[in-house]
Amino acid sequence: MSEEKSQAELLKEKLSYQPRNAWEHSEKEIRDAFDLCENYKEYLDKGKTEREFAAIVEKELIKNGYQNLQTLFKQGKRLNRGARVYYINRHKAVAFAILGDKPVIDGINMVGAHIDSPRLDIKQNPLYEDSGLVLLKTHYYGGIKKYQWVAIPYSLHGVVVKADGTKIEICIGEDEADPVFTITDLLPHLAQDQMQKKATEVVAGENLNVLIGSRPYNDKKVKDKIKLNILKILNEKYGMVEEDFLSAELEAVPAFKAKDIGLDRSMVGAYGQDDRVCAYTCLKAMIDAKPADMTALCILTDKEEIGSTGNTGAQSNFLRSFISKLIYLTNSNYSDILLNQCLENSIMLSADVNPAVDPAYQEVQEKRNASYMGNGVLIQKYTGSRGKYDASDANAEAIGLIRKLFNEKGIIWHTSEMGKVDQGGGGTIAQYVANLGVEVLDCGVPLLSMHSPVEVTSKIDVYMFYKAMKVFLESNLG
């Protein structure tokens, strides 16, 4: 028989805070986590760019009864409780909502994530021949360690708008029968000078050029015969000419498929999990959520990795515009006063990943306030860097609401920061939504190898985050 706990042990249980491991949960929920992540891996493989992910989201929303808000707005259709609506912003960002019992101006339970990821953008005049090879010039997008992005297979994704205005979608390297591309690296035998450089200089940004061909066109009278042969292939398959690159958005992304990591298959390894792990779980939660008292809304933005700029980023008017249409179609009158009232009554969980403690690099973390793989949802009062610059810094009242909700609903969570105070840092979309008057709290999923070609998540964390988003969206917190 086990010994009874001492008074001090009971007091410690009552008064002390100790994060829990989410794996130490019911076997059913562990099975549900594995099932959920099979679907999640499919989304990662099919949606490697913001355009592709937005297109997948739209198809899933339509399948689940969501209607295009822009169409309803043009028709002047009124919206009633339980209505599910969405809007795609320039093929790169998505907002969608479920109307609740209470008026929209009483507030909205929002979740927000981003669907862009670090990658290599193909330049506008990219194609050149040199030393018997043809390559594409690139400009890296987002914060990357450039040396991680060489000597791996790449696929090419994006759109080309031709001179006559027609748009072609391109995806080469994902099908098993497709060729892939790569970026070459210097062999160690000749890398003495290279190896003396700082990590930021080992690979120069201008040398991240994608190798795409080496076979010449069979004609001795022309120069750049290999480049000509590549142009011929592009013309035959897509009707492209070289000038069409000027009005193209093409991205080179790792060609790896999402895979289970570990003998126990407990983790997912894939490109682009920052931040599609949060985008996917928010989408799934919105699809499974039931209409509640409060209106539920999800926004998936673009351009977060470069500051949330542009007309598809979180700094744009997209969220305000979407909510204003909800108010217009549900309220007898509309004014900016009502829109501002709605925003001030709303609460958002800004969903983004955070670096988990890595046994190899523990020195960069303050371990009492760090993210851990397997500890479920992470909650961050603030992000930013050093003196909390570029952070929204959530109010204690907002954290208290979420803490109470998660504890009552059995959500396993822990608190975190992004590394030691003076180590560095990073931001999310939180500050831009908070600027509108919304109460915002950062939360997310712990991640290893962030911004690398293969990022790693724990399946139980992915599942717990989905569960947390669903609980929040169905709550009455606004």
From TrEMBL:
User: Which UniProt keywords are given for this protein, alphabetically ordered?
Assistant: Aminopeptidase, Hydrolase, Metal-binding, Metalloprotease, Protease, Zinc
Q: Which GO terms describe its molecular function?
A: aminopeptidase activity; metallopeptidase activity; zinc ion binding
Give the Pfam families listed for this entry.
Answer: Peptidase_M18
What this protein needs as a cofactor is: Zn(2+)
Known EC number: 3.4.11.-
Give TM regions.
Answer: none
Out of the domains of life, which is the source?
Bacteria
Q: Show the SUPFAM superfamilies listed in the entry.
A: Aminopeptidase/glucanase lid domain, Zn-dependent exopeptidases
Q: Which GO terms describe its biological process?
A: proteolysis
Return the broad EC class: hydrolase
Gene Ontology terms: cellular component: cytoplasm
Q: Identify the Gene3D superfamilies for this entry.
A: Aminopeptidase i, Domain 2, Zn peptidases
Which protein family is it in? Belongs to the peptidase M18 family.
- The protein here is known as M18 family aminopeptidase
Q: What is the lineage of its organism?
A: Bacteria, Bacillati, Bacillota, Clostridia, Eubacteriales
